[in-house]
Amino acid sequence: MLHVLYLVHDLSDxxxxxxxxxxxxxxxxxxxxxxTRSSAPVEQIAGVVPVDLGKTSDGRFAQRLAAVARAxxxxxxxxxxxxxxxxxxxxxxxxxxxxxxxxxxxATNVPIVYECLDIHRLLLRRDLTGKAFRFxxxxxxxxxxxxxxxxxxxxRQYFAPFGQMNLPVELVENKVLELVEPEMRATGSxxxxxxxxxxxxxxxxxxxRSLELxxxxxxxxxxxxxxxxxxxxxxTEFDDFDRFVADEPFMQFHGAYANPEDLQxxxxxxxxxxxxxxxxxxxxxxxxxxxxxxxxxxxxxVPIAMQDTETSLFLRARDIGYSIAEPSVxxxxxxxxxxxxxxxxxxxxxxxxxxxxxxxxxxxxxxxxVERLGRLTQSYGQGTILQVAA
Length: 390
Known about the structure:
The protein is of the alpha/beta class. The protein is about 35% helix and about 20% strand. It contains 14 helices and 15 strands. It has helices at about 15-25, 60-80, 95-105, 130-140, 150-160, 210-220, 240-245, 265-270, 285, 290-300, 310-320, 330-335, 340-350, 365-375, and strands spanning about 5-10, 30-35, 50-55, 85-90, 110-115, 145-150, 170, 175, 195-205, 225-235, 250-255, 270-275, 300-305, 320-325, 360. Strand 4 (about 85-90), helix 3 (about 95-105) and strand 5 (about 110-115) form a beta-alpha-beta unit. The relative contact order is 0.14.
């Protein structure tokens, strides 16, 4: 059975739980180690008790670098007693650094996988800082055997033109993890006469511009459109998220949800999914294919995207959803002025007509992922236990 050491930057991130379950479902055993950004310790994830490498803070990059440096110095002690993994996965750049350190500690040629699901803005700078970070990434990546990423635009717009890595690429999109096909209920019918349209913005809520735009738009529509927020707000990106939402007459925040367990329930309650992110507009936000795109479409919610983004290209290729030309109240109002029950039902049916595998990562996909990881391994000797304390 393949043994994966998975190093992550935030143990409390729901996407980490999903990835652990994927690898377990594919037949791998997982040792999990990482930092946490939650106030409470993370005791277990999908039955795995993680190795806690310390606490980091969202948006404080210097603090994160210091935490990684401390963790590198004590990683031998942290991983003491861990059986030698067959594969080490570093989830983002800082964890790629620790993956290199872990490989050295195990004193064997364990393959490293670089999992890059976002391109940090520091890597895209054209000044000396950006060049330094790209040099670090190239250096650390020179010891990797595979790049896992979630959008082809990351390769097309960053890894290839910047010449960062000459690695095989495994595209693992942010699809809904569905190990058993659920019994699908009827979803997302048009609102009754006098009831509002509802736009759901779910997941990692980090885009202040989206929040302000949706606020202004819902006020402009005077109750004909309501905004429903769910997930984990990045409080460092907002002046006062909770107060802002509480003061909005047509916006509600319902907190975190379990993924994938709650997805059908929460998308049943909205008509559209907000698949727009201006957090790093023109760069990472324009290139990613977000979780909410797959989640919303899986459950019949009609996506709204920005033109000239990877998400809009994805929708256009399948002739589904709506894309607005500019991030303005006027553009949104113009779109909703054209939507009635009949047009909405046609749009929803086109989404629902897509093949299930467009949106879903199933048991067979989990096995294929683990098999792909397994092909990186060679017989360097099994069962070695790390005794180093550093």
